[in-house]
Specification:
- The protein is α+β, with helices and mostly antiparallel strands and about 180 residues long.
- It contains four helices and eleven strands.
- Strands 5-4-3-11-10-9-6-7-8 form a nine-stranded mixed beta sheet, with helices on one face. It has a two-stranded antiparallel ribbon with strand order 1-2.
- β1 and β2 form a beta hairpin.
- About 20% of the residues are buried.
Amino acid sequence: MEQSRRDLLGIDEKIELAEQIQIPDWVEEGMYRCRVSYKNEIEKIDFFEYRFSHPAIIQLIENPGITYPYKFEDRSQFQQVLSENPGANDAIITHYGCLTDATFANVAFFDGKDWLTPDVPLLKGTKRQYLLENKILIAASIKVEHLKGFRQLSLINAMRDLNIVYDYTFHQNHLMIHGNY
């Protein structure tokens, strides 16, 4: 958030989120997502129950026009991709044949030895950055044709660690996930 405020709004003033966020009484045990909406100041803080979704088919979508360098509430470009591909549960966006991210997560692929993540993601997510800094992930250029050489996939974001791993089969324009999750 601090980086976004600095880059997009030119504001260096820090906001102490711990002082601003108050967990509502209705929040019980379980996993919840907290969304902080802000411009110059925090405008709204929302909590949502988080439910894991496990894809069965992940469509590969070549669209270098899709960018997402900052986390925005407006996710319409991803919603449009998913609505245009109703047979898929998720999509991985590619730019000129190189993988970037899925619609709701950074991606990581296991080659039998190392976990690799695209070196040019749509969003440099916090979990991805943590895993890179701790040398759990390696950033690399991953092309569509490399997908047949990997064994497993993980979709990572602030709510999903590298511990949810999917075996998959690569087809010409999609990944078919194996197993019941």
